[in-house]
Amino acid sequence: MSETPVQVVPDELHAREVADTFRLLSDPTRVRILWALLHGELNVGTLADLVDANPTAVSQHLSKLRLAGLVQTRREGTFVHYSADDAHVRRLLTEALSHAEHTTGTASADGHEHRYRS
Q1: Are 64 and 23 in contact, with CB atoms under 8 Å apart?
Q2: pLDDT one-digit tens code per residue, 4-52
Q3: How much is the pTM?
Q4: Which segments carry the region annotation Disordered (predicted)?
Q5: Beta partners for residue 81, in sequence order
Q6: Rounded to the nearest 10 degrees, what angle do helices 44-51 and 55-67 cross at?
Q7: Calpha distance 50→73 (Å, rounded)
Q8: Interatomic CA distance for residues 8 and 94, integer angstroms
Q9: Is it true that domain 12-104 has CATH number 1.10.10.10?
Q10: Which of the two residues, 98 and 107, has the higher pLDDT score?
Q11: What is the domain partition of the chain in residue ranges?
Q12: Which residues does 8 contact at the CB level (< 8 Å), separation at least 6?
């Protein structure tokens, strides 16, 4: 039985896709918006309140996230509801936020009291 070897260096296509995703997630407001949407469907006004940002700015962030395929929309009358349901993105953000807890010293010493769980 032959096993596929582990890719030691990512190919250009996948490395570029990862860099583009990280670039998109380099904005703290977008991280907060995406994390909120991974936990349920929300509209712009509710998201703006949750992340303490201007609704216009939230709309612009949502547009970028939607174009990248990280959030979906559902229209109900004049309201647009946003959601995110990507297991890969959920794991990525969960690990990144857990890492942030450790680097900032806010995680418990035993590692069992993480505030960010998928």
Answers
A1: no
A2: 778 899 999 999 999 999 999 999 999 999 999 999 999 999 999 999 9
A3: 0.86
A4: 99-118
A5: 43, 74
A6: 110
A7: 18
A8: 25
A9: yes
A10: 98
A11: 12-104
A12: none
